[in-house]
Amino acid sequence: MAAKMAGARAALLVCSLLAALITVTSGSLDLDGLAHRGVRARSNNRDYGGVPEAEENPEFWNHMAERSIQNALHIQRSHNKNIAKNVVLFLGDGMGAVSVTSARILKGQKAGNPGEETVLAMDTLPHVAHSKTYNIDAQTPDSGATGTAFLCGVKARFATIGVDGRARIEDCNSTKGREVQSVLAWAERAGKSTGIVTTTQVTHATPAAAYAHTAYRGWEVDSVMPPEAVRDGCKDISAQLVDDNPGIEVVLGGGRVMFHNGTDPEYPDDPGSNGVRSDGRNLVQDWLFGKTSARYVWNGTDFRTVNPQTTDYLLGLFEPSHMKYMTDRVDSPTEEPTLPEMTRTAIQILQKNKNGFFLLVEGGKIDHGHHEGKAVKAINEAVAFDDAVQVAKDLLNLDESLIVVTADHAHTVSLGGFGGGRGSPIFGKLDPNLWDFQLVPDGKPYTPLLYGTSPGYNMSGGSRENITNVDTENPEYLQQSAVPMIVASHGAEDVAIFADGPMAHLFHGVHEQNYIAHVMKYAACLGEYAEDCDREERVASGTARGSFSTAVVLSSIFLLLVWWF
How many other C-beta atoms can be found within 10 angstroms of the C-beta atom of residue 231? Predict the structure, then answer.
């Protein structure tokens, strides 16, 4: 009897130790990522359509699905209820579902793979939801009001920033008393460090929603404001950044013209690059005043000399207007920094604060590429944006850091068409014929990526342009569109939310866009959630990502050992 009891105790001990090991360590496994490891396109192993040989075996798909189920079960058992010390919001401007899918394919094809099977960095964030992007007065939104939603927590009117729905566009007086505070502002009040990284002007709609309050997103500099708005006490966005938000430690992007009225240091012979302030102020000097361990940089060479350990404040303005497209850059140490580079430096500076930080990272040129109808530019920007997400994943501990990836709105770009096999170049052409059937009546090729509205509408002799001899992989190529438009319009459909870290599981279905701000505040105990956050329950859940805290697991093992001996 004693021997049986001893055997039972031994078996229980072994099972407990194994369970503890799985609970503590399995959170670091990327089970889905194993599925396609080593699957690369080899022309001698592919038939028409570019099918990787491994995928012909049903076991490939069965094993992948089984791993995904186990991963999903683990995620359901181990929701991270910790308090978020750090919060990083990645905002892909104009990055709808088509942009995400296209970036996935392009990233894979750049690595020599078919592309469709690629796993983006944002794809690995396990909690996914949809965001409804409309403004309170517009079915198809603009980025000012969407920024107010996902940063300030309330939906607002088209083209307004940082004010509630009672404010009216271009009506300065209507904003008084209607200002709403952003997650960044609440993080500042809580003693956290804060930062903004963007590839647009730092005073553009999305970054401005983190710090400004204005009746019109176009009021980026004083020289464009109506006299009555200035008379009534409204301030331009760039002045609000410097005067009203001195505590933001990192600001990186473009937009030098908004900060001075002199000659541009990079393009001194271009009058169009000169500063446009009318009040005579040099906001860069004003930003530096009174700060210690602060630096201002305007080129890639100086940026790459920044030491995050000795720099507490960093302002980088790398272009007179918006930053360059990835496709327009040269491979040189003097080239302006990429979004991943800026993200890395920003995190390294901000994470020195023991209280944590909030960082907004915007891939703004995705939107610009789509507005121009140039999908090659837009999708390359989306790939760089995903690379920046990977930087954050590499640098941060997701036990204590919430990462959210989303978009403000979509675009009218579409992806599809028959005539292209697996692994077809994302920027290539599709055959108008499907086997022996002429699917396209005009017999002309077309591209997988097309726009509903854009400057790419091009009729020649009453019919669609023949692109047989056109280089559709050229970054300047305009994808064809159904409706002619000077600039492509936004899309109105839902966009995705990807998240991981503390309270990421609160993203779970279809949400209004303002919900995003509330989850970030709740996760970090900011704003209205500072006091009524259920801290005891969340602290008790521990710091491990398993279903029990490390302390609980180790205590259980200790008690079992005491019982055994």
Answer: 10
3-class DSSP state of 259: helix
Confidence of residue 30 (pLDDT cuts 50, 70, 90): very low
Coil, strand, or helix at residue 327?
helix
Token pair recorded at residue 444: 């002309």
The alpha carbon dihedral of 32, 33, 35, 36 has a sign of: positive
Nearest-angstrom CA–CA distance, 444 and 249: 54
Is residue 250 within a helix (H) or strand (E), and if so which, with residue range? Answer: strand 250-254
The string of DSSP codes covering 408-431 is S-EESEEE--SS--TT--TTS-B-
Q: Alpha-carbon distance 388 to 400, whole Å? A: 19
Q: How far apart are the C-alpha atoms of 194 and 190, rounded to whole Å?
A: 11
- The answer to whether the beta carbons of residues 401 and 85 sit under 8 Å apart is yes
Q: In 3-state terms, what secondary structure has residue 393?
A: helix
At residue 514, does pLDDT exceed 80?
yes
| Average pLDDT estimate for 244-267 | 98
Residue 155, Cβ density class (10 Å: 0-12 exposed, 13-18 middle, ≥19 buried)? buried
Q: Using DSSP bridges, classify how beta strands 437-438 and 433-434 pair: parallel, antiparallel or unpaired.
A: antiparallel
Task: Say if residues 215 and 145 touch (Cβ distance below 8 Å).
Answer: no
- 515-524 vs 143-152: helix crossing angle, rounded to 10: 30
Q: What distance in Å separates the CA atoms of residue 344 and residue 394, rounded to the nearest whole number?
A: 10
Active site positions, annotated? 143
CA gap 197, 429 in Å, rounded: 35
Question: Which residues neighbour 553 within 8 Å (Cβ) at sequence distance 6 or greater?
Answer: 20, 23, 24, 544, 546
3-state percent breakdown (helix, strand, coil) of the chain, nearest 5: 40, 15, 45
pLDDT tens digits, residue range 145-198? 999 999 999 999 999 999 999 999 999 999 999 999 999 999 999 999 999 999
Please check whether residue 376 is in contact with residue 473, taking contact to mean a CB–CB distance below 8 angstroms.
Answer: yes
How much of the chain, in percent, has pLDDT values that exceed 90?
A: 77
Distance CA 205, CA 66 (A): 43
400-430 burial, b at 16+ Cβ within 10 Å, e below that, comes to bbbbbbbbbbbbbbbbebebbebbbebbebb
SS3 readout for 281-317: CCHHHHHHCCCCCEEEECCHHHHCCCCCCCCCEEEEE
Question: pLDDT tens digits for 66-87?
Answer: 888 898 888 888 899 999 999 9
Helices (H) and strands (E) in the chain, counts: 16, 19
Closest by Cα among 120, 89, 95 to 346: 89
What single letter denotes the amino acid at residue 183?
V
Yes or no: say if 375 and 368 are a contact pair by the CB < 8 Å rule. no
